[in-house]
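G., before I forget:
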Amino acid sequence: MRVYADNNATTKVDEAVVEAMKPYFSEMYGNPNSLHKFGSETHKGVATAIDQIYSGIGATDDDDVVFTSCATESNNWVIKSVWLDQIKNGEKNHIITSEVEHPATLSACKYLEREFDVKVTYLPVNSEGTIEAHTLKDFVTEKTALVSIMLANNETGIIFPIKEMVEIAHQKGALFHTDGVQAIGKIPVDVQDLGVDFFSMSAHKFHGPKGIGALYIKSGVSLSPLFHGGSQMGGLRSGTLNVPYMVGMGKAMELAVKSFPKMNVEVRRLRDKIEKALLELPDTFVVGKENRTPNTILISIRGVEGEGMLWDLDKKFGIAAATGSACASEDLEANPVLEAIGADEDLAHTAIRISLSRYTTEEEADYLISSFKDAVIRLRGISSSYATVQAQNEAYSHK
Ligand code: C6P
């Protein structure tokens, strides 16, 4: 049996999404900005996709939703253009983000800090792994150009109090961006209710294709484009439109919204069942039990090094999980969220992220539970006999 439990890294493309995309490769391939029929038929596909995305996130007709290549581009666009628009000319000098953002935000902020002396504040998380909205009050000033805090954390699934933070930021005249990548399809998203100025998305996190994302920009908020050219997307992102992928993203959004009740009930039940069973193992610890996306568990298992555990799960049992975000998985460092909450070294190095999807079955959940328990028992056995051998060697050398 093979089980895919790394859906926060990416998801399988829904068959209906593939079907919706297919005709736009070699039947309807006109440039949607061309005036002939080949162009107008693809233009219709783009218009439908845009409608699906507007309605999926609760945007109004006056707002902008601009397709990008992914959330990394969307996040970089906001952060770097806010620098261009408000910081470069000395109007403002400060950006606030959090310690636990994805590198797509953190690295862009660090770049501005390093290269252009922009003041960046990294808001801390508390011992529960969440950001307390009131902490923002201590840092936001009239010189703050942007606050960028994610809606749901990719490692823990914890949902941050964005609406409250938006109010605090706006009182001081700062713009608010949220990285909503891990929220779409998992929790209801309403950009109007949140009050954010910018919202980033990536289609492959909700059963759409990789290589397509979007940025929501609230009506009345201006953002300089990064790509200048043929003025596509209202001049906000030039370049010939990637029609099949836009159509795929739109369809994926429609399906994500429809399957939200399943995520919230069925997937949540499976997640809770797995979590309860794994917590029966001694010395295990889960971050943020309360306000979380319904598909995610970040569990630490004392004495079982995360990489070893992943290896066992993958090679012996055919189960794909993660030690944390996929783009940080090449360095065998501690889990950044556990480090940020002040967990000890052992807990930070023994974290495993399990992330389910609407395709996860009961049978897969049961198999995951039994395999996970087997792997922990085996690896704890190895490390305790290893510790015994080490202790014996040490005792011998002192004789
Ligand atoms: N997180 C994870 O394993 P892109 O690669 O641009 O489609 O998405 C980047 C990104 C931005 N924000 C958040 C909150 C994310 O979770 C991700 C992608 C994956 O957690 C891959 S590193």
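The pocket of C6P is lined by residues 8-9, 70-72, 102, 104, 150, 154, 179, 181-182, 202, 204, 325-327 (CB under 6 Å). The longest strand covers residues 296-301.

More on Monday.
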